[in-house]
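Supplementary Text 2. Reproducibility record for the structural model of the 156-residue chain.

All settings were left at their defaults, and a single model was retained for analysis rather than an ensemble. We include the record here because the model underlies the residue-level annotations in Supplementary Table 4.
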Amino acid sequence: MKTIASNKKAYHNYFILDKFEAGIELLGWEVKSVRAQTINLGESFVYFQKNAVDNYEAYLKNAHFSPYENSRLADQEPRRDRRLLLRRVQIDKIHKTVATRGTTCVVTKIYLTGRGLIKAEVAIARGKQNYDKKQVLRERDIMREKEREVKSYDKK
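Retained model, structure tokens:
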């Protein structure tokens, strides 16, 4: 598994509650852009829309796929909505969870599988307050200090 792009802001701004693996419906130039690692997930999120059969579909919104320079297509839209390929049970579970107040759905990373498929890691997340973010930083600093002390004790 080779990580192409990760959304580090998601881990800073949200508590990750659950993760799912999803395929992405891409055009040819978008696949080339992914393989060239020229995508940005900074402000992206997942939203749900009803289709003609009254089922919900998941879409990736606001992800920036840089236009592929060697393409002959003139109308490459870098921020278009891209459909996420999930199972019906997963879509229903995510949609039901996101419908509750305080949770959202974000893409945390896009990666290539061993077979060359492009997948997205979709996460259900709950927003952090400023004091939560500070608490996480404090805990991380404490863990670093403990590791340093253990390392220095082992050297003696």
